[in-house]
């Protein structure tokens, strides 16, 4: 093992250690502000009582963190993308000023109630992409200043957290194996809750989060197994709701739509078995700014219901929803605030489609989700080029389109 001692007194930039095996001693590095290790094998860190406030040990793979003395300055510690399987007691005892701890992409399986107790100044904690199956209910009990916590992409099944936080605003539990609403005891400050891509199928136990129904403004429940959503009407202050990729039964969920959209500005109903926009018939939709109903079988005759969203800014839909219209003039004419359009095509847009839907090019941003580079001929590119020459007057936009055409032609050739 090679040993490297840093006797640096004036360095304030990021220091790189590239040897295969290193021992880094910060004993004399009183003025060092940032440290980044880019070596990939094994690292021993000692004597961290210096002036470092940002410590990057990501992608080291193996390391031993030996604390000698206090580290009263260190505020950011990145331990992500390593092979950490255990956080020993006392590891962070002297990191009294630590505010941001990143331990994502490791191999943690358990998190006891002693490893994090001394990090009272912590505001951001990222434990995502580990192998956590269980989190002790007292693990975060003393982290009263925590604002953001991510436990996403783990193996959690049931979540019971006792966290007497007064500051926690964002909790991410997405991409786990959770089969019911999380039990969050003592939390009433959360404004953003992400429990997407779990195995939640039942909301009848909504009472277990009754302390959150008034505080949550952003709720992401995409990718679950929800069929009935009427219980969500308890969240009276929702501004953003994502229910995409749930097999919702709208015949018994209309009450939720009618009673719970008073404050909604963003609603995602992508791939939720939606067959009609009539569910908005008796709803005031003037507050909506973003709406997605792609990957559903909605009748084009429902276009009149769409007009209720008069202040919409971002609209996402399937191309076949407007297939029977000669152009998108109706959308442009009725949605004065609309700036961003996302159109999901089942196949590559044809040359005729580009010419017919010329009004699309009046928006600030149009996102065609089909890969245009797979076109079998240059006809589509020629149609766009012809239209740009005739219609586009905005120089900045025209330059962007010319570049797009050039790249497309290169791929075709």
TrEMBL record:
<dbReference type="InterPro" id="IPR032675">
    <property type="entry name" value="LRR_dom_sf"/>
</dbReference>
<keyword id="KW-0433">Leucine-rich repeat</keyword>
<dbReference type="Pfam" id="PF13855">
    <property type="entry name" value="LRR_8"/>
</dbReference>
<dbReference type="InterPro" id="IPR003591">
    <property type="entry name" value="Leu-rich_rpt_typical-subtyp"/>
</dbReference>
<feature type="signal peptide">
    <location>
        <begin position="1"/>
        <end position="19"/>
    </location>
</feature>
<dbReference type="InterPro" id="IPR001611">
    <property type="entry name" value="Leu-rich_rpt"/>
</dbReference>
<keyword id="KW-0732">Signal</keyword>
<keyword id="KW-0677">Repeat</keyword>
<dbReference type="Pfam" id="PF00560">
    <property type="entry name" value="LRR_1"/>
</dbReference>
<protein>
    <submittedName>
        <fullName>Uncharacterized protein</fullName>
    </submittedName>
</protein>
């Amino acid at each position: 093992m090679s040993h490297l001692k840093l006797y640096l007194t004036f360095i304030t930039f990021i220091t790189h250690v590239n040897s295969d095996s290193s021992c880094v001693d910060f004993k004399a590095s009183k003025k060092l502000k940032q440290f980044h290790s880019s070596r990939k094998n094994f690292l021993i860190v000692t004597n961290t009582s210096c002036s470092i406030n940002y410590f990057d040990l990501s992608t080291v793979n193996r390391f031993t963190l030996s604390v000698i003395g206090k580290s009263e300055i260190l505020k950011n510690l990145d331990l992500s993308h390593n092979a950490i399987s255990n956080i020993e007691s006392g590891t962070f005892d002297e990191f009294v000023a630590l505010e941001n701890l990143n331990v994502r992409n490791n191999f943690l399986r358990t998190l006891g109630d002693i490893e994090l107790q001394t990090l009272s100044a912590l505001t951001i904690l990222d434990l995502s992409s580990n192998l956590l199956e269980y989190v002790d209910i007292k693990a975060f009990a003393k982290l009263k200043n925590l604002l953001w916590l991510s436990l996403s992409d783990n193996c959690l099944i049931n979540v019971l957290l006792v966290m007497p936080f007064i500051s926690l605003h964002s909790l991410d539990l997405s991409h786990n194996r959770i089969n019911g609403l999380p039990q969050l005891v003592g939390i009433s400050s959360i404004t953003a809750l992400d429990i997407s891509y779990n195995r939640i199928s039942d909301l009848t136990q909504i009472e277990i989060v009754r302390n959150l129904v008034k505080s949550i403004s952003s709720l992401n429940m995409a990718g679950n197994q929800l069929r009935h959503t009427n219980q969500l009407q308890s969240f009276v202050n929702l501004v953003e709701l994502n229910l995409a990729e749930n097999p919702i039964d709208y015949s018994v969920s209309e009450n939720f739509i009618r009673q719970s959209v008073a404050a909604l500005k963003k609603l995602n109903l992508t791939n939720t078995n939606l067959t009609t926009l009539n569910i908005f018939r008796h709803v005031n939709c003037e507050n909506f700014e973003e709406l997605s109903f792609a990957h559903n079988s909605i009748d084009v005759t429902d276009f009149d219901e769409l007009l209720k969203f008069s202040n919409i800014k971002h609209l996402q839909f399937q191309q076949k929803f407007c297939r029977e219209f000669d152009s998108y003039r109706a959308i442009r004419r009725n949605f004065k605030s609309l700036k961003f359009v996302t159109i999901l095509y089942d196949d590559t847009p044809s040359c005729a489609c580009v010419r017919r839907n010329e009004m699309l090019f009046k928006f600030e941003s149009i996102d065609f989700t089909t890969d245009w580079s797979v076109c079998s001929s240059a006809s589509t590119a020629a149609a766009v080029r012809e239209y740009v020459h005739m219609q586009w007057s905005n120089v900045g936009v025209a330059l962007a389109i010319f570049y797009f055409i050039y790249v497309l032609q290169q791929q075709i050739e």
